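Subject: Predicted fold for DUF72 domain-containing protein, 359 residues

User T.R. writes:
Posting the sequence so we have a shared reference for the thread.
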Amino acid sequence: MQGNLFEEPLSLPTDPPAAVAVSRADAAPATRRGAARVRPAPAGEDWRVLAQRLPAPLRFGVSTWSYPGWDKLVWDGEYAPGVLSRHGLEAYHRHPLLRTVCVDRSFWRPLTAGQYAAHAAQVDDDFRFVVKCPASVTDAQVRGDEGKALRPNPDFLDPLLAVERFVQPALAGLGARLGVLVFQLSPLLLGWLGRPTALLDGLGRMLAAVRQALPAHAPVIVAVEVRDPECLGQALVDTLGAHGATFCLGLHGRMPPIEEQLPMLRALWPGPLVCRWTLNRIFGPHGYADAQKKHGPFDAIVSEDLHTRAVLARTIRGIAGAGQPAYVIVSNDAEGCAPLSIQKLALAVDAGPQDESRA
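User M.O. replies:
I've generated the structure tokens; pasting them so everyone works from the same file.
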């Protein structure tokens, strides 16, 4: 089967799974007294039937959610980014296709258990969070405000700090709503890339500590994302496999196209899919500012990537269709509007290979 993995579609369930068929709008928690009310877009309900046809283990979500441009797609009204950042998740999670979200801000600064709990209070029990380990642990360099490397980071891959600054607060605040812990290794200097054994030994020690800190039967996925193609290969596969972790597909200008990363998942099969589609390759490895300038206000598909979408849809069908969890996070920087990209991906997954290029 491994040779055909992610190449041939698997049969999808014809009846909606019970957990998905129940309207999450009906199960959503009440808004806290005094909190700003963000209304969900009524048009989101148009996607409920499609959502019920998708594989039950599949969760689509966005990378951050504070975008006023998603009016009529996710929100019913124009809200300030600050309001959406603080109070938008309740409306966001009512969209049938949006069953997860990536909390990116934990990468820039560790969050407290209370901050995680504030997010969890806005969603229902079926929702799951993808959270990123702080760069203070996963970046080999201490960087300035503009991202320039200043000096080596003495806390790089520190097992104790990974647990104390990240795993424990996330578990305490999110509880059963915690879905994926992502450890994104920032771009490495040649000093580390030239010492792959030392790098993977350090990564292995950190992953061992993380696994030990997680409850024995907690269905939390541990995923590692890299930003250097040199890291791809059997040695990384062996390290991840030894510690019950998976490889996060990083669809980004610094990394090879999706089809060149899929061998990592095949080598770890059977296992979950964690994918972060964060930047269209046309913008190159450092093109976030250019993507933001071209795509704002993030209300339309501007830089369509049919190839990545088709291969990703096929991958989703193979993995989620086989019953494995699949978390797919999409950024506005991928095609211009993350919710619209997710709609097109969902249509492609449902349509099958014969029609996915037209979705």
